[in-house]
Amino acid sequence: MSSTAPKVGFVSLGCPKALVDSERIITQLRSEGYDLVPDYDGADLVVVNTCGFIDPAVEESLDAIGEALEENGKVIVTGCLGERASEITDVHPSVLAVTGAHAYKEVMDAVHTHLPAPHDPYSSLIPPQGIKLTPKHYAYLKISEGCNHRCSFCIIPSMRGDLESRAIGEIMQEAENLVKAGVKELLIVAQDSSAYGLDIKYRTGFWNGQPIKSRFYELANALGELGIWVRMHYVYPYPHVDKVIPLMAEGKILPYLDIPLQHGSPRILKAMKRPAASEKALDRIQHWREVCPDITLRSTFITGFPGETESEFQELLDFIQEAQLDRVGCFTYSPVDGAKANDLPDHVPEEVKQERQQRLMELQEGISGARIERFVGRTMQVLVDQVGDGEAIARSQGDAPEVDGVVFVEGGEHLPVGEFAQVEIIGTDIHDLVARPV
Ligand code: SF4
Fold this sequence. Notes:
- This protein is of the alpha/beta class.
- The chain is built from 12 helices and 20 strands.
- The chain has helices spanning 16-31, 55-71, 85-91, 104-114, 156-160, 168-180, 216-223, 245-249, 266-272, 281-291, 310-323, 350-372, and strands at residues 7-12, 35-37, 45-50, 75-79, 97-98, 138-142, 144-145, 164-165, 185-189, 204-207, 210-213, 229-232, 256-258, 296-303, 327-332, 379-388, 391-395, 407-410, 420-428, 433-437.
- α11 packs parallel to α12.
- The protein is globular.
- It binds iron/sulfur cluster (SF4).
- Iron/sulfur cluster is lined by residues 147, 149-151, 154, 156-157, 191-192, 275.
């Protein structure tokens, strides 16, 4: 690190999509010769990438900005909360600049204004895969920005705009660079990954000199050629998703789908204006399991959406019982400023939302605990995340980092971190597997 280079501190909050934005800004900063420093003291200026999705995230973002101001004093704010600049400047009037989500150029303009770039950037120091904030062996790959849907509880389209798919050649090049840099697992993210290419009319691009359409199936198939784990997040149960399931059965991409279903009552789904709300999700799930029996399905749900009655909540529980999903996250409805759902009548009292969340999670625990049992006695490939005292902590094909379970490999302390290993599963709890090396 050059001691004379201007120094930037970076605080990254929010979801994997925001993390990818942070990585792009940091890559640009490094390519222009700025140094990144890990503490407020050593920084000439601090960039805070915020999340503004729900109230607790807004609070966390405002606290992080306050801390950066107190510790350093020179702060530029970007990210989702930046779309509602006055909420930031009302609390923290001394921030230097506020920009919105994926506003890479605006952030860099603000940095240039308050901390001029060095004259002789060592652009060759930037690796071709860019700077990543995840461990070396896995990376998030964002395939599009924005969203064409208008879910009534969400303000992301007003913050991030309509769907803008990246060119397929550019995505594949980034994926290849990441694999060359040692990445063993790519996590595909977007607001709606299954909508990839719709806005650019599935335009044909090129990869390795071959024509390839910018479409969900073709992208999954091409990524499946790279010989690493490819995990699909934020997919909706559209009919065209069925085509991707055989790629999972063949082992080209991971048998894993993260499908945020949010509810099981048709009336609530309609009030939520959810994508693919009219698709028969249960039939689709059953069909996916017929084609790929080992598929791990993850989803999220909301309890206490405005107007949700006890019998509609019961419909959601019946759905959960029938769907037999492997992994489930459940949130209580949180009224986001500016969301249309706030104007709906019959808001559900907070204690009822929480009581329903608890009932849902109790039901799901039994389901998750029973489903994970099927792995006991099997030998499987895992990816080692870390090693410690007498064990390794790894993940199976059914475990996405941060949100799912892990595999505790007893006696696996010698396994290399960031590499695949073969293990035999010897036990489980509700979310995690216990294994030994083979
Ligand atoms: S699909 Fe719905 S919840 Fe997801 S980003 Fe788009 S509008 Fe928001």
